[in-house]
Amino acid sequence: MGELVFIGLGLHDEKDISLRGLEEVKKADAVFAEFYTSLMPGLSVQKLERLAEKRIAVVSRKILEEEDGKPILVEAEKGKVAFLVPGDPLIATTHVDLRIRAERQGIKTRVVHGASIVSAVMGLSGLQNYKYGRSVTIPFPEEGSTSETPYRAIMENRMMGLHTLCYLDIKAEQQKYMTIKEGMQSLLDMEKRKRRHVITLSTLVLGVARAGSDNPIVKAGYVGNIMNHDFGAPPHILVFPAKLHFMEAEALITLAGAPEQIREMVE
Predict the structure, then answer these.
(1) What is the pTM of this model?
(2) Percent of the chain whose predicted confidence (pLDDT) is above 70
(3) What is the residue range of 89's domain?
(4) Is 182 exposed, middle or buried, given 0-12, 13-18 or 19+ CB atoms closer than 10 A?
(5) How far is CA 163 from CA 114, 116, 143, in A?
């Protein structure tokens, strides 16, 4: 019986893979990787191949989503396959689907977890994990239209006193990665249409860039100020806090340079 092992690569470069993950790669008969669900800015596939002592076949979104990952499953029916994924490997629903397909074909599956942007943002900011609501992705506008889903998710989470983690859209094939400024502008455009005072220039927001690197940028403030902050190169991610615990407020002020006035948001 074959085996498919999902291995998380972590957040920044080839050195973020765990020792367990590296050991699994070295034992694999075939190794695949995808880099369309997230950007690892410091990663070199060539360096990862030297580290793992294996050739790595990089697969596209088309192979996994339109072809149902068939090249991976074909190899996994014959032997042990390692599938390398940025971050924690089953955060993306695409890969859950692949795991289900493998199991239904009689292929054994396992997971070697890696550092996730979800836990990284919480650790860098000091916003407590049990106070987050539904996460959402802010997509690039399509033909001039803007998705209402992120705006609504932030509003609904805030009504429950919960923070909102906003992933920013990626079009890896086009080397296009949404920035914090673009994400906030999309929400401000929706605010002009809805006028529910969900996202205004005085809304508290947290921006994080290049989590997992040696020089992540973590900056909290009001939308009007954060719009003009230089976060540098991607990947970027956004958080819209709701009511704050006093420790969260102190963390944002100390760790993310938030204004002192946010103490007024403490519940």
Answers:
(1) 0.93
(2) 99
(3) 3-112
(4) middle
(5) 23, 18, 30
